[in-house]
Design a protein that fits this description.
Order of helices and strands: EEHHHHEEHEEHHHH
Largest sheet: 2 strands, antiparallel
Number of domains: 2
Mean pLDDT: 79
Low-confidence stretches: none
Radius of gyration: 23 Å
Structural class: alpha+beta
Number of strands: 6
Strand order of the largest sheet: 1-2
Length: 187
């Protein structure tokens, strides 16, 4: 097997006997023959996914390909296969999100997500579990009606998880940021 770079920039593994006779592209020609050209609405998303995972010259390669994040072979070879697997679940404004950020792009590990969902699935998030519920610091803040960064700052400041989640804002902070009406005021 030879590791080859297609004219489109994608990497393909080709048997030595097919180098001169049968292999014309990584699969991008087949996409064009299926009518799925670069003018298709999902083409750019598909193309960028492949580039950041398999093209060392891509600006985002260090966060994807260099970390071992890959696009499954079925999708690398065919935009049509990618669309068959995830196209139906798309909704307006959605972005492609990996459910497990340590795994690659494949049918069992992607979903269309809102910007908020994708932000909560970022690998740099602080995740907090209390009483069997795991949420990001941002989600806990939203759920508790606290200012956006309050929970994360408490954790980074050395507060225990229970203290972080159960302690209401003190009056000074409540005046500054606002406080849910059902929380008592501490002085």
């Amino acid at each position: 097997m030879w590791k080859c770079v297609c004219d489109c920039g994608n990497i393909a593994h080709v048997r030595i006997g097919n180098l001169k006779t049968n292999t014309k592209s990584c699969g991008c020609i087949r996409n064009t023959q299926q009518g799925l050209t670069q003018h298709h609405p999902f083409y750019r998303r598909w193309w960028n996914m492949i580039q950041r995972c398999h093209n060392p010259k891509d600006k985002d390669y260090r966060n994807y390909g260099e970390r071992g994040i890959y696009v499954c072979e079925r999708w690398r070879k065919s935009l049509k296969d990618f669309l068959d697997d995830v196209g139906e679940s798309y909704f307006e404004g959605a972005t492609l999100d990996r459910i497990d950020n340590e795994r690659g792009y494949s049918p069992d590990n992607v979903r269309w997500a809102t910007a908020r969902m994708q932000g909560n699935n970022h690998r740099g998030n602080i995740k907090i579990t209390l009483n069997g519920t795991t949420l990001t610091a941002s989600e806990w803040s939203r759920k508790l009606g606290l200012p956006r960064y309050c929970v994360g700052r408490r954790i980074q400041g050395g507060w225990s998880i229970e203290e972080t989640i159960t302690t209401p804002l003190v009056e000074r902070a409540a005046r500054r940021y606002g406080r849910p009406s059902n929380w008592p005021v501490l002085t």
